[in-house]
Amino acid sequence: MSRIALNARLLISGKLEGTGRFTHQCFKRLVASRPNDDFLLIFDRTPSEEFNFGDNVEMVSLLPPARRPWLFDIWFDYSVARKLRRWGADVFVSTDGYISRRTSVQQLNVIHDINFEHNPEWLPKRYARHFRTRFPEYARIANKLCTVSDYSKKDIEANYGVSDITVIPNAPDLMFTPIREKQTIRDRHTSGNPYIVFVGSLHPRKNIHGMVRAFEKYKMLGGSFDLLIIGVSMWRDEKAIGENVHYAGRLNDDNLAQAVAGAEAMIYLPFFEGFGVPIVEAMASGVPVVASNCTSVPEVCGGAAAALVAPEDFKSAAEALLKLERDDEFRNTIIDLGLKRSGNFSWDKSAEILSNEIDNLLNG
Hints:
Blueprint: E1 3-7, H1 18-33, E2 38-43, E3 57-61, H2 69-87, E4 91-94, E5 106-110, H3 115-118, H4 125-141, E6 144-147, H5 150-160, E7 165-167, H6 183-190, E8 195-199, H7 208-220, E9 226-230, E10 245-249, H8 253-261, E11 265-268, H9 277-284, E12 289-292, H10 297-301, E13 307-309, H11 314-326, H12 328-342, H13 347-363
Helix pairs in contact: 1-13, 7-11, 9-12
């Protein structure tokens, strides 16, 4: 029997973003697959009972809330380190890139991407400075380092000089599945009109303004669909207002899955991605994807996108969307390819990889 502590800081009820969803899906499977181990889920706020994954789980909230760079240091280096020692942890698993610099407990760290190394201007200065200072250190002191794509693996290796990185991919949740009846969903989000969807934070790296420009180009070429953008702003307001452009904000899981499956296509043109889980969520929902041709996106698409275009090649993106609207044979081919591609990703497989890496630490 082992005692495994888990960083549950991003398990926030109703607010699971990409890393939080990875954490949720992997942790609940990890607990279920290891009934003889004890787990400690460490939160920085009062935890919701929905994250109590089993009888072998203890949940604890530690102060201070880790919401600012200097508070990150205090929480991980002191509060977490003290709790790991007192609880007698054998390993600490963190899936958001942060670990403690003041513990002798073995640590498994998952760094999803290092976009802040390439484009620090996309973040507030104090956050960019903190990330660029701490993450190279976190990468080096981790007893085991993991990431979510081959692209991120190579990027971390090149920038931090760390090798032996294991890839644990994201995956689509089971709730993402094709649906036939779409009109009710259209009525809810786009006044009844068929639509193209985007899902993600309204962050500079997501290229929201460029995506809206590509959509406007598509409309100029004769496209008839609306655009639905699902997500909320992070550092600053990134909304780009346009005719037939709708913003849904953050949606709960059921509404999110329905909104994705109700779309005619997904447009996804980020400048930078460590993985890009909305791509495989759309594919699993039978929704064809037009995506950017950079960073991890082509790897995740795996040849199943309707088109891969440069993030600022608005004309090519627009033409691909129009082809999906007008060419049923092409559309159906891309949908089939996407369904097959999404089947290559599974939270069960990802949680198994994580569990195996924990065993390697415990038995090493």
